[in-house]
Amino acid sequence: MIVVMKPGASQQQIDHVIERIEQLGLRSHIIVGTERTVVAALGEKRDGAKQALETGDGVEKVVPILAPYKMASTEVKKERTCVKALGLSVGNRRIGVIAGPCSVEGRSQLLEIAQMLKEAGATGLRGGAFKPRTSPYSFQGMKEKGLELLAEARQQTGLAVVTEVMAPEHVPLVAKYADVLQVGARNMQNYPLLERVGEAGVPVLLKRGPSATMDEFLLAAEYILKMGNSQVMLCERGIRTFEDHTRFTLPLATVPYLHQTTHLPVVVDPSHGTGKASLVIAMARASVAAGADGLIVEVHQDPEKAISDGYQSLTPAAFREMMAECRKVAAAVGMEM
Amino acid sequence: MIVVMKPGASQQQIDHVIERIEQLGLRSHIIVGTERTVVAALGEKRDGAKQALETGDGVEKVVPILAPYKMASTEVKKERTCVKALGLSVGNRRIGVIAGPCSVEGRSQLLEIAQMLKEAGATGLRGGAFKPRTSPYSFQGMKEKGLELLAEARQQTGLAVVTEVMAPEHVPLVAKYADVLQVGARNMQNYPLLERVGEAGVPVLLKRGPSATMDEFLLAAEYILKMGNSQVMLCERGIRTFEDHTRFTLPLATVPYLHQTTHLPVVVDPSHGTGKASLVIAMARASVAAGADGLIVEVHQDPEKAISDGYQSLTPAAFREMMAECRKVAAAVGMEM
Amino acid sequence: MIVVMKPGASQQQIDHVIERIEQLGLRSHIIVGTERTVVAALGEKRDGAKQALETGDGVEKVVPILAPYKMASTEVKKERTCVKALGLSVGNRRIGVIAGPCSVEGRSQLLEIAQMLKEAGATGLRGGAFKPRTSPYSFQGMKEKGLELLAEARQQTGLAVVTEVMAPEHVPLVAKYADVLQVGARNMQNYPLLERVGEAGVPVLLKRGPSATMDEFLLAAEYILKMGNSQVMLCERGIRTFEDHTRFTLPLATVPYLHQTTHLPVVVDPSHGTGKASLVIAMARASVAAGADGLIVEVHQDPEKAISDGYQSLTPAAFREMMAECRKVAAAVGMEM
Amino acid sequence: MIVVMKPGASQQQIDHVIERIEQLGLRSHIIVGTERTVVAALGEKRDGAKQALETGDGVEKVVPILAPYKMASTEVKKERTCVKALGLSVGNRRIGVIAGPCSVEGRSQLLEIAQMLKEAGATGLRGGAFKPRTSPYSFQGMKEKGLELLAEARQQTGLAVVTEVMAPEHVPLVAKYADVLQVGARNMQNYPLLERVGEAGVPVLLKRGPSATMDEFLLAAEYILKMGNSQVMLCERGIRTFEDHTRFTLPLATVPYLHQTTHLPVVVDPSHGTGKASLVIAMARASVAAGADGLIVEVHQDPEKAISDGYQSLTPAAFREMMAECRKVAAAVGMEM
To answer: Which chain C positions have a beta carbon within 8 Å of B2's beta carbon?
Structure first.
């Protein structure tokens, strides 16, 4: 850490900072500049020290040098993580495609769409059984019945089931049916949930919160990794900005940035990332070109009749078109899909 | 709802929209404009209809007319809600002040600061026992031991205990000790938690998520109200924007906006809202002038030694100054504090 | 426009709105809903009417139905615009690549890099002679001398010169040398400049302001189109958000969105859009996959010694790599490059 | 500056950074930490060095220590600047109030409202003669005729005329009539305009761009100060965020932040900052409580008939109410108004 003193900070204030640094078990190193004094605090400590120091009198700011996460970092693990669940493989130059309806709505709907997706080349099946809904008056999901239908769809198609878990107490139940536990964007910083999911021993798809920085996103992954679960996929699904022509803003530079920063694979969700079916295929292509290790997209037989998110769901025909186009882009960037 | 058709939408597409509106139990009403056709859908239905319609062929967009929340609305309940817990009274032209350390760190720390706050005029005591921390390597709180200390501080001072609950399964435990349950910004859309908190029969302080719109904020409150708990305070604590000179951006126009929109009282948190102790007093004054019904601020005997959030904590002396200045502003706007 | 009345609006207030609509030369149409009354205002008027109506007593909001721009709209001109300047062709399934240094720094620097870019397949040469700089203490460009060097580089290579004009009074001078006038992001809403550029009869590259909505962006283009200049390229160069791992956030969904909305071609700037050389190639690939009609990138022989923007400049070798990779992606999406 | 090397940076890379630092005329100072090496670059150089260094191989990031602006800083000038123009005094514990219509619309409108404002206690008169409008189809102002009317209103009332100048070439004309030149939010980084305004020798009201950071805002002021004009007022008028219940988000923490950082006075514009007349009074009160040195508000005799911005204009009665309420708050915080 670098402690930047205010211009005109007194020697006593500087001495106090040095004393605090040493109390924190770090080594101090003073640099006297032309206009300001700077004190470096050397050591491995990542937590707490920054804020302890920035409260000191005469301190202007404290600049951290080390990344706050460890286990997620490429500095700690160089080889890239590949997440696998049945036929779904995400990472390692193979793009996994997870597709399905926003919500599980019924048996025939689910089994039919699962079959179509399988034929079109998906390897994972998404579908919400427990649904986080902005309004308490909206459909909240089929719950355990939905999970049973997902398991039945897996049995018929071999697709890996990817489904959301919303509460720590539901983790054992959802993990009984799911091949991948999804932590939704609203729950990215629901730490009791992250810890429970980390213990469950099932691969995890962790969605980025709509206002999370990369450090916060990687620290959320760190909660899961720390519990001993290293099968974590990071999912970019769009951020909240002032833009009003899309539901969220989908910032694809996170894909190459995360590839430089973490060994965990990166999945992109162009359905939530745009909120408009008419933009999904172009953004799926762009995601693949940016280097994404996976895609997760909403598909519904009849989007107009979907109970949720119909406006951003592809039809089966559009999904097949997306697959065809993305496969060409994948080949162009040396990936398989 | 107003369904705006694309220019050149066919009669068949328009007929289809009308049919869908009627299937949804709504009445339709066509308006043929010079460049576009618009179809109004009349009725009380708030949920699901919008998205069902906006997926239709030839539809450009669907504009909702009714607010998505009901019980939180001034349209449903005209008299303003006043939340009370022991001596803490928020709303009804009395400004409640909740103060205390970010985290409960130990017995003497807590009892000492509680006594100081009481003397300075606070009526609520904040202090985290269960702490949501961005990093898994940070201090996670004293848990139940912390709750016991808060209860002891209440006994000695009469201050109402306001403390965060992070997981649905902890609600009964925290509710046993707390006078007000705080739902943190990261959990604003943790629906299982909101429901459980709504059942607990204890007043709730609901913090705005850093990227939540007003509709999302009020719908989160609606989850609590719907369970029969009407003692809900809305807390503005800052949003995430591009600004980098403060930790969050504190948008005080939410105070008068919420007063026009909902009967629930509004509390402002200038500590998290700025993230810098040196800006807290000015923003506390501004909050009161904007009409806030309450303040929640972080205070620590020795901010430099605080385990968390020291950089945004006031000293006891600064808190007394804040109280003195805010009381003058409160008097100027016809409020008591 | 749709005028939504507040619940409980009086008949007198509704009558007043109707009267105002008619004074504005529009036709009114009342719809009485279960909870609110809505009044449609029919006609072609796009400007002023909205705000005149939303000030009325008892009015809650006014929702525009028509897009605020006309000439930029696909509704007015269906065939796509292709912008051409010497060998640079942007639109019509041919991707134009504009490359070069941030600033023109000297003769040998410029002629050398221009030659390299030409060989690598660029068709346009960028380079700032008049430089808008955040700090008054930064290098402000070589001005007319820089323009002369750009013209010399064009003569040697045949590359079309794309360079920024910052002030209305400089338009004639810059237009004397440039093949394409660039309006920078900071000047997207500099209307006197847009008008002058529109009169100059030279193709224009209009950069999106970092906080501009799509409507504002298209209205800025409309200022140019209205002066009779239809050779306008829209350039997405990143928006300002809370993200701190990139200099700006590059939202590629604007590419397909603009393709649905306007006939003007869309160029992407992955250099400013990320602010980090290490992310530029991946985002150039993604831009092409999203359907971009052109790319504009910063390239410098020795980025470390660049006077400006070195950290986001590609080396010539990296630029050749970008071209090779983007050509494969272009072929995969049916474009030529 | 602090140059943070990547983990595992080679000695050769470190040596290269040191060499570059010395070439830039700075002194270098190495700090070898447990995981990384850091090199401090000491000296006064503010510009260019940062980016020259951050392009180096093995460099992770460069952290500036010094603020990029000088003349605007409290470090350079400790005594606070008070801007004066006729009876308008902004700074020095006197709050100046600038009020008036968005646009000058005609003689009787302007003279009448100016008289009302004078009587209500305003000391400055705002009113646009040259209007920057998002749409080219909107009213663009009365131009010189409008300036003449403003001058006439000044003569009748003694109010100082505050009006916008949009193009460098118009500065002499506008300066002939105006007491304060306003640089609008869209032009905050229009550097040719800032320089010309700096030369004009007339006080300036500089509005913050809706996506400008504090450093960018102060550097824009620095462009004016550098030309020898020290009579600059900074105006906070709201930023662009995801919030959709107000037109912009008004972040009042900029007021105390700027008071700590610069000697220039700070004016708040609650009209543009909220975009809704019903929120203006509360935010004017909050601005005063936050310590604002001035207010600028839109007032119109008949907001419904205003040519522009009627929805955010106060009526004369509302303005008088605002003045009465703000005076009480001003007294409470030890200011005069």
So the answer is: 2, 38, 63
* pLDDT over 90 percentage in chain A: 76
Phi, psi values for residue C66, rounded to 5°: -85, 145
Largest CA distance in chain C: 76
- What is d(CA B127, CA B99) in angstroms, rounded to the nearest whole number? 8
Q: How many CA atoms are closer than 13 Å to the CA of C94, on its beta-carbon side? A: 14
Query: How distant, in Å, are the alpha carbons of B170, D27, D203 from that of D19?
Result: 58, 10, 45
Out of A249, A256, A329, whose CB is closest to C329?
A329
Report yes or no: B217 at the A interface, CB cutoff 8 Å: no
Q: Which of C52, C138, C310 sits opposite D55 (nearest CB)?
A: C310
DSSP string, D298-312: EB-SSGGG-SS-GGG
Distance in angstroms (rounded) separating the CA atoms of residues A83 and A80:
10
Residue A76 touches chain D, beta carbons under 8 Å: no
Ramachandran angles phi, psi of B4, nearest 5°: -95, 120
> Which residue of chain C has the CA closest to A259?
C279
| Mean pLDDT score of chain B | 94
Report yes or no: B161 and B180 within 8 Å, Cβ to Cβ.
Answer: yes
User: What confidence tens digit (pLDDT) does each residue in D128-146 have?
Assistant: 999 998 888 888 899 999 9
Per-residue pLDDT tens digits of chain A, which is 337 residues long: 889 998 889 999 999 999 989 888 888 989 888 778 989 888 876 666 777 788 888 898 888 888 889 899 998 898 999 999 999 999 989 999 999 999 999 999 999 999 999 999 999 999 999 999 888 888 889 999 999 999 999 999 999 999 999 999 999 999 999 999 999 999 999 999 999 999 999 999 999 999 999 999 999 999 999 999 999 999 999 999 999 999 999 999 999 999 999 999 999 999 999 999 999 999 999 999 999 999 999 999 998 888 887 889 999 999 999 999 999 999 999 999 9
Instruction: Say whether pLDDT at B47 is over 70.
Output: no
First-to-final CA distance of chain B: 43
Q: What is the distance in angstroms between the Cα of C201 and the nearest Cα belonging to chain A?
A: 31
CB-based contact B69 A135, cutoff 8 Å: yes
Between B and C, how many residue pairs show a Cβ–Cβ distance under 8 A?
52
| Closest partner CB to D191 (pick from C132, C226, C307) | C132
Query: Letter for the amino acid at C118?
Result: K
Among C260, C265, C261, C266, which residue's Cα sits nearest to residue C287? C266
**Three-state SS annotation for B71-125:** CCECCCCCCCCCEEECCEEEECCECEEEEECCECCCHHHHHHHHHHHHHHCCCEE
Retrieve residue D132's tokens. Answer: 């920057």
Strand order in the sheet with C2-5: C27-32, C37-42, C2-5, C59-63
What's the rounded Cα separation, in Å, for the pair B23 and B49? 10
Tell me which DSSP letter residue B231 carries.
-
Q: Amino acid identity of D284? A: A
The ipTM (two decimal places) reads: 0.95
Neighbours of chain A (3+ CB pairs under 8 A): B, C, D
Question: Using CA atoms in the order B30, B33, B35, B40, what is the torsion angle rounded to 10 degrees?
Answer: -30
Give dist(CA D277, CA D78) in Å, integer.
37
Q: D335 to chain C nearest CA, in Å?
A: 33
What span, in angstroms and rounded, lies between the C-alpha atoms of B99 and B124?
6
In this structure, what DSSP letter does residue A204 have? E
pTM (predicted TM-score): 0.96
Q: Is A155 exposed, middle or buried (0-12, 13-18, 19+ CB in 10 A)?
A: exposed
Q: How many CB atoms sit inside 10 A of residue D260's CB?
A: 12
Q: How far apart (Å, rounded) are the C-alpha atoms in residues A317 and A304? A: 15
Cβ neighbours, 10 Å, residue A94: 18
